[in-house]
Write a structure and sequence with these properties.
It is built from 26 helices and 16 strands. It is of the alpha/beta class. It is globular, with a radius of gyration of 27 Å.
């Protein structure tokens, strides 16, 4: 048997041939020859449809059942004069790759995950008896990579080319067709305005850097960032993937205007009434000045020329900001911005549609304003790109915007704000909304648009299945399939563990506890502890019964999971997929318990400040919370995914990094927005803050002082962080690595 290669130089088809040869060899040990001419006697694997493979035209009457230039694909076996033929073909390059990867999953026993493949060895592969024809429900199947930093697993800006290559291959294995780099704009200003903006030194703090996640000091030289972007996009395009081009008013916290440009061009700015991105480097230039519009357009045109492909465009408009207290004037301005952006694209790239990001609809607009806004968009050239469905704003979502049945749109899952690098998701809610979307012929896509990549392996499995064709399967069934695909001989053991965990995903929707960080802000210990606002959360009075019920159910459920993990043999636990996933589940469990306890502490403190006698309950809970935070530190120490130090080592493995970047990394992790499950931050910052808070509360209780004077918080918080910045990250890793049996034993003890 040999592989009959298509007669084309298109790289995606050539890759399909190489993939078939490689995976066949990995499974069987046999390296198949690749030939360009058919044989009349040998078995053959024929890659590609008749457009690139003349043999298909001559051997199959009527050709293959796939539409040209589509994402449809087929796998067809045929017996011909005593020889076996296997046709693997798609309507284009990427869908031919889908066919190849799908074949090895169906017949080779392969399974594909973001962190690696499962490939059986020594197995014969049957190429007979196949008659498969796959058609996706959605035209666009998209995933986004975002600009936060901190931990390499979750933050795509950390990835070098080898990681991007693996990721792009996984997109193809998942039958996705579009991805987007919203990780900053690298050296675009230097490319677009070389006489105005120079490359910054990679030995200094970036001139535009401020603090927190706004400290965009580079880790690798900006010149290399540009080279990497080009290389990543070239590889993606060689695989026939789509990457939307950013256009319009791109100024944002992750794509700031260089100070050199501001000083030399002096663009002037739109006057904002909102506070976000209010520094000059983050303000939108005055779009009533034609020169500013031309410069914004030049950035887009330069990206197309230097890196991209004018196939599809994307704009956030004037997102995440308001510009006038008069809502009608604010709306009119945003409409004007869209018109000018679309005008440039339609004139210069007339065949490329425009994605209108719906984040601003959700974030800054009322549903009646959105309904007014979308009337201006041409359904022939525009797609509404919604990725806010699971944020559960029933008063302001795709069902309220008058887009269904009228204008093309994309259904999207946001899933994770930056603090949420744990396992979660209201699958029942998402699935019900997805059913409505799939019934609307104008729904053209499904997107996964988180601020964290790879935070939740189960959600990725749910997304990749439904993005191709929504099936309405329960998350329990998807988790079961994942276990048998991912864990091999340990599947049954891991299924028991996942089945013990899954009920916790359903508890919050029953108890009224929300998922997202607007609730976590004041309550979850290490998530903005010092922003407690008791008046704002007086609804805890109504929630308390639900919270108590939630905690009882949660604790009973989790005891089984912890016991199962505790008794896992070490040889099983140390397998890479299992060790990673156990660390994720334990992290989620202890975070949820901490969340509940700090919510309850907030409630008790509120009652005490209102004159109720809750002092003993508060003291007991303060002790429990502090001890559980110690346990959380050990949980995060179970896997290097949660470590800033190991992320820093990963950045350094191929090239030197900016000597100031370790400080910038600490800024990027420990700030009001980005605080999440990070080992070093928890050990030295969160725990110290909680200890300070505990001592402060105990002193108030001792003195019966209900004044709530919190001025000392800000000073203590700043001092703790400054001390943290002085300690090299490597110094946090001098001791013994936590043991999962000791950790689970401690967690079981703390569950009472």
């Amino acid at each position: 048997m040999f592989i009959l290669a298509p007669k084309t130089e298109e790289q995606a088809y050539r890759k399909a041939v190489q993939v078939f040869q490689n995976y066949y060899q990995k499974i069987t040990g046999i390296t198949l020859d690749i030939k360009t001419e058919p044989s009349e006697t040998e078995d053959m694997v024929i890659i590609g449809c008749e457009v690139v493979q003349p043999f298909v035209f001559h051997s199959l009457s009527g050709g293959l059942p796939v539409k040209y230039n589509s994402d449809e694909y087929c796998m067809i076996s045929k017996e011909d004069n005593g020889r076996n033929l296997l046709y693997l073909a798609g309507g284009r390059g990427r869908s031919t790759l889908y066919a190849v990867y799908d074949f090895f999953e169906r017949r080779g026993g392969c399974h594909y995950f973001w962190d690696g493949d499962v490939i059986p060895e020594g197995k014969a592969i049957d190429i007979t008896g196949l008659d498969v024809y796959e058609v996706p429900r959605f035209q666009y199947r998209a995933i986004r990579y975002f600009a936060h930093r901190g931990l390499s697993r979750f933050q795509a800006e950390h990835w070098d080319f080898d990681q991007w290559q693996r990721e792009i291959d996984w997109l193809l294995k998942s039958r996705l067709n579009m991805f987007m780099l919203r990780i900053g704009i690298d050296d675009l200003f230097q490319k677009a305005f070389p006489d105005i903006v120079s490359y910054p030194s990679n030995e200094e703090v970036l001139p535009e850097a401020t603090e927190g996640f706004n400290n965009r000091t580079t880790f690798w030289p900006l010149q290399y960032r540009g080279e990497l972007r080009k290389k990543v996009l070239q590889y993606a395009f060689s695989c026939d993937l789509i990457h939307p081009e950013d256009c319009g008013t791109m100024t944002h916290w992750y794509s700031r205007t260089p100070k050199e440009f501001l000083e030399k061009v002096n663009p002037g700015f739109l006057s904002q009434t909102s506070q976000s991105q209010s520094e000059q480097t983050g303000l939108v230039w005055d779009i009533f000045d034609e020169n500013n519009l031309k410069n914004y357009q030049k950035l887009t045109d330069t990206h197309v020329k230097e890196y991209g492909k004018a196939e599809l465009f994307h704009t956030i408009g004037l997102a995440e900001r308001t510009y006038n207290e008069d809502r009608q004037k604010n709306l009119d301005l945003k409409k004007y911005a869209y018109r000018r952006i679309i005008d440039h694209i339609s004139k210069n790239y007339p065949n490329a549609p425009m994605l209108i990001a719906a984040w601003d609809f959700f974030f800054c607009m009322k549903p009646e304003e959105v309904r007014d806004m979308v009337k201006m968009f041409d359904p022939e050239k525009t797609v509404i790109f919604d990725y806010t469905v699971d944020l559960k704003e029933e008063h302001n979502n795709f069902e309220q915007w008058d887009i269904m049945g009228k204008i093309p749109w994309i259904f999207g899952i946001f899933h994770a704000y930056e603090p949420q690098n744990h396992v979660h998701g209201d699958y029942e809610y998402i699935t019900k909304k997805l059913e409505k979307a799939a019934e609307d012929s104008f729904c053209k896509g499904m997107a996964f648009w988180p601020e964290n990549s790879h935070s939740d392996t189960l959600m990725l499995e749910y997304f990749r299945e439904n993005a191709w064709k929504p099936q309405g399967r329960s998350i329990d069934d998807i988790a079961k399939d994942m276990c048998f695909k991912r864990y091999g001989e340990d599947a049954a053991v891991m299924l028991n563990i996942w089945q013990a965990f899954l009920p916790t995903l359903k508890l919050p929707t029953k108890s009224g506890i929300a998922y997202f960080h607007d609730v976590l802000k004041p309550n979850a210990g290490f998530l903005r502890l010092f922003e407690l606002d008791y008046e704002r959360h007086s609804d805890y009075v109504d929630w308390l019964a639900g919270l108590e019920d939630y905690d009882l159910q949660f604790t009973d459920t989790i005891k089984e999971l912890l016991t199962l993990v505790h008794h896992l043999p070490e040889a099983v636990y140390e397998k890479p997929f299992i060790r990673r996933d156990i660390a994720d589940l334990l992290k989620t469990v202890v975070m949820k318990k901490l969340q509940y306890r700090f919510m309850k502490l907030s409630y008790l403190l509120m009652r005490w400040y209102q004159g109720e006698d809750e002092a003993e309950n508060i003291r007991a809970l303060l002790d429990k919370n502090e001890k559980m935070l110690d346990v959380m530190g050990d949980v995060l120490g179970l896997h290097e995914d949660n470590s800033m130090y190991y992320s820093l080592l990963d950045l350094q493995k191929n090239r030197a990094i900016n000597p100031h970047f370790e400080d910038a990394l600490k800024d990027n992790v420990v700030n009001w927005y980005c605080r999440s499950n990070v080992y070093e931050a928890l050990q030295f910052v969160y725990k110290k803050e909680v200890r300070f808070f505990k001592e402060w509360v105990l002193e108030q209780l001792l003195n019966n002082d209900r004044s709530r004077n919190v001025e000392s918080f800000a000073r203590a918080k700043e001092q703790i962080f400054e001390e943290f910045k002085k300690i090299p990250l490597k110094d946090f890793h001098q001791g013994q690595k936590p043991d999962y049996k000791a950790v689970t034993a401690a967690m079981l003890a703390m569950m009472e």
